């Protein structure tokens, strides 16, 4: 599937905004703690039947940056550099991106892209730098913003504090969470702190559409999956 769409219907008695998260990627190492970011936020959705869509494109980006203060719950991060990556498959190698540090900043070395062979992964290899000087460095996964009329094209969805001379082999997931509330895109969050959530998992499914209702009692109903075309498809 090149893209999937999640429709959230607001059956509650008040206007609501909805935020979406992408489950952080499975990683092959234990270097650093992965954190989930607020991926996108919807406009206000009318009560009693209003709806909004999150249209998710199956594109992935290696991202990096510096995060003052240090990454923790509630900190909002912006990426300073990004490069689109390919996930490895049986027929195509994945992307390996070197990450370097210079002049108190970090960047991705686009001139020396390599290959990663572990299925459904990409890799970020960090260079040799002073860990104390670059203690705020992070890396991770970015994806195209799925909200209607986004103001930023690519948003970080998961970040990891970056250590020098390490290999980070990341495998993005197709598991998503919907939460009520107008949060700030890029903010580091824990799903356990969000209260009521809906979990949408397209892993292994042929369906490309999912619909979930925020009910009158402010809990989410069961997710319904279906197959259909998008507005921009023939």
Summarize this structure briefly.
The chain has 234 residues and is an all-beta fold.
Number of strands: 20
Element order, helices and strands? EEEEEEEEEEEEEEEEEEEE
Largest sheet: 6 strands, mixed
| Uncertain residue segments | none
Integer-rounded radius of gyration: 18 Å
Strand content: 35-45%
* Number of H/I helices: 0
**Mean pLDDT across all residues, rounded?**
91
The general outline is: globular
Q: In which range does the helix fraction lie? A: under 10%
Structural class given helices, strands, pairing?
A: mainly beta
Give the termini distance in whole angstroms.
16 Å
Describe this structure in words.
It is a single chain. The chain has 234 residues and is an all-beta fold. The protein contains no helices and 20 strands. The strands form 4 sheets. Strands 3, 9, 10, 11, 12 and 15 form a 6-stranded mixed beta sheet that branches. Strands 8-7-13-14-4-17 form a 6-stranded antiparallel beta sheet, with no helix packed on it. The two termini are 16 Å apart. The mean pLDDT is 91.
């Amino acid at each position: 599937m090149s893209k999937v769409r999640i429709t959230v219907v607001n059956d509650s008695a008040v206007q609501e905004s909805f935020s979406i998260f992408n489950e952080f990627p499975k990683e092959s190492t234990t270097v650093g703690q992965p954190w989930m970011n607020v991926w996108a936020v919807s406009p206000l959705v009318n009560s009693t039947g209003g709806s909004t869509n999150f249209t998710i494109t199956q594109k992935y980006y290696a991202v990096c940056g510096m995060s003052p203060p240090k990454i923790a719950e509630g900190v909002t991060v912006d990426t300073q550099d990004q490069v689109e990556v390919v996930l490895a498959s049986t027929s195509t190698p994945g992307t390996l991106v070197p990450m370097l540090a210079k002049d108190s900043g970090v960047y991705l070395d686009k001139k020396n892209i390599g290959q990663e062979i572990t299925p459904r992964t990409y890799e970020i290899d960090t260079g040799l730098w002073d860990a104390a000087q670059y203690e705020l460095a992070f890396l991770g996964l970015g994806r195209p913003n799925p909200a209607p009329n986004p103001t930023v094209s690519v948003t970080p969805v998961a970040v990891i504090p970056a250590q020098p001379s390490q290999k980070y082999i990341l495998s993005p997931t197709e598991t998503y969470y919907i939460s009520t509330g107008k949060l700030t895109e890029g903010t580091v969050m824990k799903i356990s702190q969000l209260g009521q959530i809906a979990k949408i998992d397209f892993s292994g499914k042929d369906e490309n559409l999912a619909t979930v209702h925020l009910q009158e009692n402010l809990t989410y109903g069961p997710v319904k999956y279906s197959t259909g075309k998008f507005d921009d498809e023939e």
